[in-house]
Beta-glucosidase
Amino acid sequence: MHTVTIDPNAPRFLIDGAPAFLLADTLWAAFVRPTEQEWVAYLRLRRRQGFNAVNINVLPIPHDRSAAPGEREPFAVRPDGSWDFDAPDPAYLANARRMLETAVEHGMVPILVVLWCNFVPGTWGAALTPGLVMTEEQTAAHVDRVVDAFADLGVVFAASGDENFTDPQSTDRYASVLRRLRDRAPDNLRTLHPAPFVTPPAVLADGDLVDFYGYQAGHDDDWSVQPVNNGDALRRMPVRRPIVSMEPVYEGHGYGKGRGRHTAANVRLASWTSVLAGSGAGLGYGAHGVWPWHRPGEPFSGEHFSGTPFPADVALRFDGAWDVGLLRRIVEEHDLWDLQVRPELVVDDRSGACFAVQDSPRRAALYLPHPFAVTLDLDLSAYRVSSWNLGARNRDHPVVRFGGGRTVVEQPEYLADTLVLFSG
């Protein structure tokens, strides 16, 4: 079992006392769908790719899932097909416990979403599935079962899933969930997994209910700018905490009502701009087909938004998983824990370059989504320069010129995105 804590001296995580970037793959349906053999093969691959955590929903997402007859169910099923929240199935949690024990053995930190928004009053998810809203008593009993089953494995708890926090009912209910997690499992870190573009309200974020900030940049319109907007907004919160971009674009996920699918290049853009905007503590990755553990020919309830998922065994092999594994290595090797975007220092750029600086240790980072020259209104001649061709996952040797108090990074000579680091 790994112990995950917050570094008292920096906005980052410590795993077993050592600084670490929390790189989490997403398999929301882990407790419902994969076989034991599939689960082990999945963990082995993701570990090789550089992941050290996995995002899981304790309960299935009712409105957004692949499904097949005979799946594991968390509660007794009534004759009409609904769940009886007062009759939890102990075999469900027992199986989930065994799965998490296996994950821990493979070096993974489980990050568990306790209650997706469907199960909480006053949420948009509850409006979709009103028969699945838990009472206060059922909520408390569910939280207690989750803590009793998993807390000793060193899991991280995300109280919410995909919620906007626009209704006092949902804010109050999630506050009570966080308080119960804090009181029942004081050694386990807590956070929220909000809906896209959402900054959590002060009553949830400013006290001791959460240990770090999580956000979701979204998969559709504005997916390319929201990582910076959300990350920078959280970096400016009254209480400084580590920031994790928990759900940037999923690789293979549809967007624009069928206009296209997110590629590995999109994943790299959303992931690296998240880090440059202050999300140096961790990142979520998702492959469309892995997170619902989809199999060919199965119905998928979220097709209208996401598109038909790829089979899980196909989506597992998407290239973006290797890209974010490299991201983790670079962040850890170069101590990129606390970057802050500085768009005003980019004075000549045509490609949407993102530039950020960090005071301690002294760092600057430039992300180029396309190969164009960039001029920075900053003299970085005293810094060491290193660079990566992110599309090829290779180191590069950029041409950088200095003069007149400015830094010019000449156009890279390949058709891919680039990361240029300046180390003081």
